[in-house]
Amino acid sequence: MTADPAGWRHQEAFLEMLAAERGAAPNTLRAYGADLADFAAHARAAGETAASASPTTLATYMAALAQAGLSARTAARRLSCLRQFHRFLAQEGLRGDDPTIRLQAPRPGRTLPRFLGEAEVAALLRAAGPEGSLPASRQHRALAGLEILYATGLRISEMLSLRRRQLSGDGLVLMVRGKGGRERLVPLSDAARAAAQALLRHEAGRDGVTRSDYLFAGRDPARPMTRQGFDRILHEVALRAGLDPERLSPHVLRHSFASHMLAHGADLRSLQRLLGHADIATTQIYTHVLAERLQRLVQAHHPLAAAGPWPARET
Predict the structure, then answer these.
(1) Which end of the chain is less crowded, N or C, counting CB atoms within 10 A of the terminal residue's CB?
(2) Which pLDDT score is estimated for 286?
(3) Which residues form the domain of 253?
(4) 257/217 same-domain check
(5) Are residues 132 and 79 in the same domain?
(6) Is 254 annotated as catalytic?
C-alpha cells in the first residue's frame, strides 16, 4: 500500500466509520478491507487510486471479476462495498461524483438452503446422546450443541460465544448478541436447557469448579471452543447417525430450524426475529417451505381437492 498512501488513508477512514457508526462485525470489516485492497490494485494498474477511480476503471474491474469466474454473489458484495466507499467519500467532501452510479450488480442465482429432514435431526440427537456411545466429554458437548443449534437457530459463532452465566437462573431465554452487535432474545427448549446444564455439571468435574466462563470451553479455558473443534464433533456424530458428514454443518442446522419452524406454522416475521436477520428479505429464502405448506393445506381442506383436477368453470 506504500505506492498509494492517500488512497489507503481513505480506505482506513471508511472502515473506521463502518466500525464506529454502523457497528460492523470484525468479519465484515475484514471482508470489506480485502475487497477494497483488491480494487485498489486494479485501480493502480490504471494509474488511479481507489478513491479517485473513474467510472471506466470500475466498469473494467467488474468485468474482470466476471472473467475470473467469481460468483455473482461475491461480485455483488464487492460492488456493494465500492458503492458504500464512494458514498462515504462524497459525504466527507473527498469526491464530488459517484462513479458506481451506472453499474449494475450481477444477479445471483436463487439457491435454496440445504436442510435436514426431521427424522434425520432426530437420528443425530440420538447419536449424540447416551445410546450413541460417544466418549463422555464429546457426548455432552455434542448433545448440548445440537440441541441448542436446532432449538434456537443460532449461528455457530453465537453459540460458541455463550457464557455460563447466560444459562443461569431459569434459562428460559437467551440474550444473544448477533451480527452488527444487535441483541435479541431467543427462547430455549427444555431439552436444550437440560443438555446445557448436563454439560456444565460435567465440565465442573469432581471438585465442582468450572475453569472457564464459556459454555463450550476451548483447550485454553480463557477462550471458547473453535469452529473447527465443533466441526470434528459434528463429523463423528453424523457418521454414528448414518448420515453423510458433508451434509451436516452448523449452518445446515440453522436452516433446518428455520424450515421446520415454518413447516409447523411459524410466520416469517417471528422467524426473522429469532434468526436475527436485519432485513426480512433475508428470511424469505425459506418461502419455499411456506409454498409447500400452503399447497398441502389446499389439498387437505379445499372442497374440490379430493375430487382430483378441478372442473373447468363457465365464464
Answers:
(1) C
(2) 83
(3) 118-297
(4) yes
(5) no
(6) yes
277 carries an active-site annotation: yes
Domain membership flag for residue 254: yes
- For the question of residue 155 being annotated catalytic, the response is yes
The identity of residue 140, as a single letter, is: H
The verdict on 57 and 126 lying in the same domain is no
Residue of 44, 77, 83, 179 with catalytic role? 179
Condensed to tens digits (0 to 9), the pLDDT of residues 243-301 reads 999 999 999 999 999 999 988 888 999 999 999 998 888 888 887 666 766 677 677 77
> Is 251 among the catalytic positions?
yes
